[in-house]
Design goal:
alpha+beta; six-stranded mixed beta sheet
């Protein structure tokens, strides 16, 4: 199982909306690197659900429920279906992540504008520790 981080704006589609809907199609990603990550996702992979914008915090964990399908007519972009697993016991803020030496190499911190990024096993364990 691979681990990921996906970013969403709490004001447009946040954790509460995802939970209320029971899942969603993670679509509309128009960045080549992020689209490569979506293509690499497998059913059962887990991802941190991160609120960008003013919140700037990981708030929950989602599971990939269906692998990629085309998103748009040109075939360049893809989407996956994600479903909520559980909220984090404590939010893990961007400031906490940046302050944690074990997360210095985390893709999301190195490429902050990337909306979908991989999370290594040691990084995942560190975020889970910070989340309580």
């Amino acid at each position: 199982m691979a681990r990921w981080l996906i970013k969403g704006e709490a004001s447009s589609y946040g954790w509460d909306a995802l939970v209320a809907d029971g899942g969603t199609e993670w679509d509309g990603i128009r960045n080549a690197a992020a689209a490569r990550h979506l293509r690499a996702m497998a059913v059962g992979d887990e991802a941190l659900f991160y609120h960008s914008g003013p919140d700037k915090a990981a708030v929950g964990i989602v599971r990939v429920a269906r692998t990629m399908q085309a998103d748009g007519a040109d075939g360049r972009w893809v989407s996956v279906r994600v479903e909520p697993l559980r909220p984090l016991a404590r939010l893990v803020t961007l400031a906490q992540m940046k302050a944690e030496p074990a997360l210095a190499g985390m893709a999301m911190l190195r490429q902050s504008r990337l909306s979908v990024s991989p999370v290594g096993e040691a990084e995942w364990a560190t975020v889970m520790r910070l989340a309580g």
